[in-house]
Amino acid sequence: MLNWSFPLYRLFGIQVRVHWTLPLLFIVIFIQGIQGHYLEYAAMGLGVLFVQVLCHEYGHAITARRLHVEAETIVLWPLGGYTYCGSAASARDSMLITFMGPATNSIFAFGGAAALAAWGLWDWRFLNPFHDWIGLPMTFVQYTVYYTFRLGVILTLFNLCVPAYPLDGGRILLVFCASKFGRYAGAKLATSISLPAGVLLTVLGLVKGELFLTLIGIQSVIEAYQIRTLATQGMLDGHPAFPPESDYGSYERERDEPRPGLFARWRQKRRDEAQRRRAMDEAVLKLKVDDVLEKVSREGIGSLTTEERRVLDEASRRERERER
């Protein structure tokens, strides 16, 4: 994809590039807008979409950098965007990097909903992504805010809830399965879910006449089939979703050493606390024994009080218990 893109700008040390097909798509949509006499709405829609997709990718890239993962390039193209990230230190970090993309779109959704509510235009039907939004009684500015809200909801839910790779939900599913069952078994399990999801997206796009939904579905099917083929051949290192085996150790450790449950952690905490108290008691008793022995060497054993003799007896008893 990089070879078919050109640089747009650099910000925060991240190079943003644009695939050459994206300007062509914009030109086609602008021509349709001119012919249909809705150029201002077409320009607004493309602008909002461009900003939200760009912010979505920045959500991935900036989170990756905060987790000390390399992220230097973002590529925008007609089906969305792609952030080139290095290998995360753990499955949890990898899933967090993926999650923060759609989470950025949710900010637009909440902000748009708040603005619509402030204008008194809020309608709970807006939460239905299939609600008819054409011809709403709004000014251009209000409609822009509504479209921002609507697109934020769609991008958040679509990316997170559809378990089809390379959508974010499919990426999270892939990493989760790999961390629980190992790379190869996890990849086969994840693609068993991703393949039907991609087919469903393709069919839904064809039925509704949505070209981009159809293309995303076809891409998901191709990607899932490729991962499954590589997993069957034992060649997952050749896929960008999987770091080399040497870098994947943290994922495997998470699988081999699962985090203890709540009750197990409580019991371990009790054991650690008891051990800490015993160590403190031993230290205090040792100091007392040293003082008593020093007195014996100075004044003789007959000079010991009842309490000092009890200290020696307690020390002898504990020594016998350790020898057992």
Structure summarized in a few sentences:
The protein has helices at residues 21-35, 39-66, 91-118, 140-161, 168-181, 183-208, 211-233, 249-256, 262-299, 306-323, and strands at 5-11, 14-19, 71-77, 80-85. It is an alpha+beta fold.
Describe what this molecule looks like in 3D.
The chain has a domain at 262-323. With 324 residues, it is an alpha+beta fold. Helix content is 68%, strand content 8%.
- The number of helices is 10
Q: Biggest sheet, in brief?
A: 4 strands, mixed
What is the structural class?
A: alpha+beta
Beta-strand share of residues: 5-15%
Tell me, briefly, the overall form: elongated
Strand order of the largest sheet: 1-2-3-4
Alpha-carbon distance between the termini?
A: 70 Å
Mean pLDDT: 84
Low-confidence stretches: 245-250, 252-256
| Helix content range | 55-70%
Order of helices and strands: EEHHEEHHHHHHHH
Estimated radius of gyration: 31 Å
Number of strands: 4
Core attributes:
single chain, 324 residues, alpha+beta, four-stranded mixed sheet, 4 strands
